[in-house]
Amino acid sequence: MDPTSITDSTDMSSVPLFDPSRLPLRQWCTGSREDVITGLVGFPDFHAALPRSLAATLESGELVALAIGDVDGLKEHVESANDSDPNCYGHLAGNRVMAQLGEISRTWFHEQTWTAGVTATFGGDEIIVAAAITDAADFHRAITHLRNRLGEQLPVPVSFAMTVIGPGHLPDQRTGSRWKHSFVDALLASTDRCLFAHKRLRRAGHGPGGIIAVNDFPAPGPPVTGALLPLPTGTETLHVQARQTLLPSGPALLLPCRGPEGLRGQRIRVTSQNVRRARVVVSVDGQAAIPGQGCADDGIALQLEPIRAGRPHRVPDDLSHALATAGARWQELPDHERAQMLHLITESATPAIRSQRIAAAVSAATHRSPA
């Protein structure tokens, strides 16, 4: 038998053939060639075509989102395949992972409703997703679905870093066309640095793989609020790359999130370099910031978690009776004021002091202006 006529199914599955008409692109990067391993748009064509499309989208007033995904531990997986699978030498195992990643990513892309976008390769084990979007949180959810789908079907997880920008991120000087490529290169570089900053934490044992880190790309003017994510709520954990700013009161870290409403700020749990502590987040021109903390020029990787609201304190019977008698609006007092009053009442040294403090609490609740 002629050995050249034998089809090696392992080799066939490692370098599949793709239908060019199913390239993961919509309006952007049309006419591009596919990468032979993943079936995604090849990076050279992506890199040549994207600057023009991205600049036109921003100049028309729309938001643009960009995400870079990197396979976690592919080198270790390849080395393990060399040792454990006699039918799959290392580089073939790597090809299999990237071919499957490409197939999953192409299917996922065609499920999205974006009017314009593309998914391309970026390096040996990275992919890029870029799209015109209407909401930063929706894009974060879409990337979360892709991350989860990849994690379920691949032998290794994939971590992402994402950035959302708007018209306010465009540079002031935009003569000619060279600025478009410089602008896109800066966007790619900033997002890639964010990704690897968080991957360094994982390698150091301070964080999990398969995360989605959110990068704050600096704008020349005021923050583009439409490009900011909400602060985490419930059981959500948000990985971010914060950058330094200077407030009248001193240094602060800007987060790629919308600032909390009100003057008192919002307490949130922040983990940095494996140190976890509660911090107060305030709003600076609509963007979330942590006052009193600085960092290097290239930013700092943080993990944000909400602080669960404490259970409301029980109102003692004597205070409850006094409030009802006076028709006082106890619930309209701020949470921190009610907590302070209850603490003072329950810690009263004598009945007389307790009565005085109850009377003061009733007076405060009675004279509270309606909201």
Strand content: 15-25%
Task: Please identify, by name, the CATH architecture of the largest domain.
Answer: 2-Layer Sandwich
Low-confidence stretches: 1-13
Number of domain modules:
3
CATH topology (level 3) name of the largest domain: Alpha-Beta Plaits
Describe the structure.
With 371 residues, the protein is of the alpha+beta class. The chain has helices at residues 9-14, 43-59, 74-84, 90-111, 136-153, 178-203, 317-326, 335-346, 351-366; strands spanning 25-26, 63-71, 117-121, 126-133, 158-165, 212-215, 238-247, 250-258, 266-272, 275-284, 287-291, 300-306. The protein has 3 domains: 8-215, Alpha-Beta Plaits (2-Layer Sandwich); 228-306, Elongation Factor Tu (Ef-tu), domain 3 (Beta Barrel), CATH 2.40.30; 317-366, no CATH class. It has 9 helices and 12 strands. The chain has a 6-stranded antiparallel beta barrel with strand order 7-8-11-10-9-12. A hairpin with a 4-residue loop joins β3 (117-121) and β4. α3 crosses α4 and α7 runs parallel beside α9 (351-366). It starts with 8 loop residues before the first helix and ends in a 5-residue tail after the last helix. The model is unreliable at 1-13 (pLDDT under 50).
Question: Keywords, please?
Answer:
371 residues; alpha+beta; Alpha-Beta Plaits; Elongation Factor Tu (Ef-tu), domain 3; 3 domains; 6-stranded antiparallel β-barrel; 9 helices; 12 strands; 37% helix; 23% strand; elongated; disordered N terminus
Give a quick rundown of the structure.
With 371 residues, this protein is of the alpha+beta class.
